[in-house]
Amino acid sequence: MSTYSAHPLTALARTNDPKTMLRRFLALDAVVTAGNGIAYAAASGPLGRFLGVDAGLLLGLGVLLTLYGAGVGCLASRKSPPTLPVRAVIEANAAWAVLSVVALAAWLSPSTAGAVWIPLQAVTVGGFAALQYAALRAPRS
């Protein structure tokens, strides 16, 4: 039995190799983030009305998220993602999660759908940060 099989991320990542776990969590983050960004950018008007968020804000966030997702995807494609850029992704994800909640409380006045979507998105991005951090810290052979 491998020493990694006891690691709680093993089942979630479907591997016991920490590098593979990290790459998979980065890749999932990249797909979700870029997909979200493309949707925000391509449909900023209708989504803005649905979420009760300014369409210009969604357009800007959409472009940013699409580029960020592409960058995370490039990092995920590396056989051994370097620690410093991975830490930057983790910190950016954690900051996004916190800022989403702060924005909701401090200055956004979303629709009911937006009031559900924004915290859900924050939890998702915070979850990516937690999974990536745990995979980065997983014991190596």
Keyphrases for this structure?
mainly alpha; 6 helices; elongated
> What is the helix/strand order?
HHHHHH
- Name the structural class: mainly alpha
Largest sheet: none
> Count of DSSP helices?
6
Question: What integer value in Å does the Rg equal?
Answer: 16 Å
Strand count: 0
Short description, anyone?
The chain has 141 residues and is mostly helical. It has 6 helices and no strands. Helix 2 (18-42) runs antiparallel to helix 4 and helix 5 (83-106) packs antiparallel against helix 6 (112-137).
Provide a descriptive summary of the structure in words.
The chain has 141 residues and is an all-alpha fold. It has helices at 9-13, 18-42, 44-51, 55-76, 83-106, 112-137. Helix 2 packs antiparallel against helix 4 and helix 3 packs across helix 4 (55-76). The protein is elongated. The two termini are 14 Å apart. The relative contact order is 0.17.
Outline the fold blueprint.
Blueprint: H1 9-13, H2 18-42, H3 44-51, H4 55-76, H5 83-106, H6 112-137
Helix pairs in contact: 2-3, 2-4, 2-6, 3-4, 5-6
